[in-house]
Glycerophosphoryl diester phosphodiesterase membrane domain-containing protein (Faecalicoccus pleomorphus), 217 residues
Amino acid sequence: MNKESAKLKRLDIGWYYIKYQLFTKALWFFLIFPFYRWMLQRLIDSTGRVSISSGDYLDFLLTPQGIIALIITIFTWMFLIGLDIHSFIWLSALYQEKRSLPTMSGLIVLSITSLKRLLNPIGFLITLYIALIIPIIRVGFSISMTESFKIPNFIADVIYLNPLYTTAYVVILLILTITTLGSIFFFHFVLLKNQPLIKSLKESFCIVRVHFKIFYT
């Protein structure tokens, strides 16, 4: 492939990805999120509440409705992992292998069906990590639904006003950042190599450790 053909190919896949992002974000904002919010509100209403505040969300989560809401939320996050992360990895792999691009619906189906690898306790923990931890440390792949997530102000104030808590918080953030950087290729091994989740994590840490200077310098 000459330079001109390679440039056209990059423009082609770039435009394809832009269209995919516009389509999936419209799908999220006009269909998935309204339906998700409607289901949560019905569950909240069924407990006699109008809304959930920071003071009673734990009480709500301990109710049957709260457990159902948590399950729905996790599966919604998993769906977004398919739309946001899996699709990007599949598209990158197809480009590197110089294969023809699938239809937009085909890419969505491929990305969503590959989520079956996360349907286990480890997969749920990874989903929680991506949805709640990565937005805080601002490193690695994230999903659109939780990318603006942050520690509540009342908790942050307690942390920053206590030197011991601040030190512990910084240490924890450092550990989480190292963990995230080390597992950056986790989904590549899961999706492209069809490897088990634990093995994919180990392989990712191994390749990052060996080639750290190339990836992060």
Notes: The two ends are 29 Å apart (CA to CA). The longest helix spans residues 3-45. DSSP finds ten helices and no strands in the chain.
